[in-house]
């Protein structure tokens, strides 16, 4: 078994070589390589144990990150100057190695990133719903896990991992593993999760959900009663669980 990390801004974690995307990994995500074949690597992600296939050229030597990106997205610049060329864009949750700090920038292996956009590894946020709100307007993407596209379970995972809580990658596993199931009729409160078959949403406030969904093709706020009625009417069934973390 070999250690490695992702060296592209975002990569698709595939079910098989050249197969469909199941999830995504972000720059700096650590992983174990369990199999190699024809330029492809079967990997196990550190952050949630998810398994899949990546191209070998998307991976580099393992290097423990020192900082993580906590802004919705950021740029790495050629120089510590906002007018210098931007080299690459990174999503919330990406992990980097900081080499030094120069004025308002940190120097990384990719270039210079605004210091206000990074936090030391181990620094946690405290409100997963507030984290999810950073993704408002992000396009819906099946299996997505970054600022340029994510799905319902990706939105849940982004919030919980940033707050130090373990979280599986898929909504079915999240329904099984997260929180405590509440009796039907229990008033919902901020931070609760509502599950349907194949879908999950944050409760963000009084009668309000925050979720990535294919109806709006984006991360949106939606009135809870409206969402429940719409999802059932479109044939996806009733709420299957109301859970509190």
From TrEMBL:
Q: Which InterPro entries does the protein's record reference?
A: NLP_P60_dom, Papain-like_cys_pep_sf, PG_Endopeptidase_C40, SH3_16
Q: Taxonomic lineage of this organism?
A: Bacteria, Pseudomonadati, Pseudomonadota, Alphaproteobacteria, Rhodobacterales
Pfam (any one): NLPC_P60
Q: Which residues form a coiled coil?
A: none
Please report the name of this protein according to its UniProt entry: Gamma-D-glutamyl-L-lysine endopeptidase
Q: Which Gene3D superfamilies does UniProt cross-reference here?
A: endopeptidase domain like (from Nostoc punctiforme), SH3 Domains
**Keywords, sorted A to Z:** Hydrolase, Protease, Thiol protease
The NlpC/P60 domain sits at: 122-245
GO BP field: proteolysis
